[in-house]
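DM from R.C. (forwarded with permission)

"hey, sorry to bug you on a friday — could you get me a structure for this? deadline for the figure draft is monday and I only need the backbone to look sensible"
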Amino acid sequence: MFNPRRRGFLAAALLTGASLAIPFVIAGAPAASATATPGIGVSGGVTQPVFSYKDAIREHVRVQSPVDSDGDGKKDLVRVDIIRPKESGTELKVPVIMHESPTFDNPGAGFENDHKKYDANGNATKFPLYLDNYFVPRGYAFVSVDMIGTRLSDGCPTSYGVADVLGGKAVVDWLNGRATAYDDEGEPVRATWTTGRTGMIGHSYEGALGIGVAGTGVRGLETVVDIAGYTSGYESFRANGTLTWLKGGMGWLSKKFDVDPDEKCAAVRRKLVEDSDDATGNYNAFWDERNYRTGPISKARNVRASVFSVVGWQDRNVVGSQFSEYWTKLPRDVQRKMWVTQYAHLDPFWARREVWVNTLHQWFDHELMGVPNDIMRRPRVDVQLGPGRWITQADWPAPARKVILRPQRDGSLGREPSTGTGGYLDTQQTEIAMAGDPATADPNRLAFLTPPLKDAVRLSGTPSVSLKVKLDKPTANLGVLLVDYGTDTRIDYRERSATSAEGLKFIGGKDCVGQGTADDDGCYTRAGDNTAVSGFNVVSRGILDAQNHRSLSRSTPLTPGRPYRISWKMLPQDYEFKAGHRLGLVLTGTNADLLQEPDLEPGTGTRVTVDLAGTSISLPLVTGTTID
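My reply, with the result:
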């Protein structure tokens, strides 16, 4: 989609590149010398590595933020480590790739837990991840930002709160001449070497920071690459009123990344725990501040930057709705791209490395350099349907029709309404226990299956469920699973070991991405799909505290014995059910796989009686697929 907000920039860039203050040179030319006019090398629609990584300028500043997160009476200073081509300056101004993270101390950045190294002058000689190694030789500055309250920045981490967002925004403002930074002597420093055009990139919390900063509408942030990033703090710690993370989790998260003495931020953490309200699990003003879709600090409608999102549908940490709910709220003229995968909480650098790096390269060149490549003319979405199976499509979700399936008295799942009731107890169970052996009666679940599919059926979008239930207590955790029954080789997103996690396993050897030095070689272990043969796979899931069936902000206990119709969205998916497989609907209680601690939601023991005639699941199925 062409973005009218950026028409002037793109038009000029396509013609001359002059508006970027970036002169282009013929690809294959040697790195610019002290006597030559420096320029960016472009060939085949991408920038070329014509600058020396070893000779690049390494420096650091501290940017003044507008917040005092630790309450010491001084505005927090944000540490920024910079590496940029030696030639950047008056004659060559370069764009910025910005990686802001809370993890540079603990546990480290990326799948291999990279840490920074510094020289005697305090400048970084090792930057975590590969972005500096790859992009600095191609004419970019790389900026590594310690999130407020972490590493060498002032303040306290606020677990997605206002300080987390405005600290990163201040750095973008400084790169565009709107904020102040200081060197080690306290002297002001200006970013005279940059065009100001900035792209933020990050995984998980880092991705959330990019989304949060973009939602302020800050000028100069041109693109955000959000890899499994949060868009709602509530959905990171709650699922429709149920607790899914640690009790006191917001305080724990703040402490996790902060290696300063405990007393420095103890008061901040106490308030995080108090205000997050573990007692009810309700949505409140605390969570609204951490809502980057429609919150008071950051909201999707304010986004000016283009957005490149990556989501793993089997991610338990950042569930798929974090992406899908945000995606629909972005302004229509925001350029966007996405990858959707069957992995869990994963950066695709580890899963599909060559394709990912090439795609990211073209994306940044187009969005930050104005290189006239075809990245925006390609299909917008890459979809992984299984191990080694990728397709592309124009948008997400794919065009689909809503198909309603209803549980039947005989345990089948069909199109016609049924009669009768069923029941189960709300107990805490794993998904393996809930979905396994569906033909066997189980007091803790109800299972219903379609006949074997005559043809493959693809789901693309967000299923929803509607239950008509009676409880014998004032509340229950209502759980539902959509299951693919049929033996197949699938991504094993459950296994975790020293050599495998999130659906991948290390396979030996390394790839060196870009240029390197003795301190920073840019080399990373290769990984591949971790697969397993299984008889079934949980495709989507949903859970809701029945007390929140009317509102996530207010608990309303149910009257025992009274019937209620309760509907809610399950988690989104893009998944293919193969011919011969069967779709399964499992109605159950507390889902142990969604919990970080067993005692978070032990199960209420409530007896749930289900009226089959008033119960259904709605599936967005791609046009042309049928279920008998």
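R.C.: lifesaver. The chain has eleven helices and 35 strands.
me: no worries. The first helix runs from residue 7 to 15.
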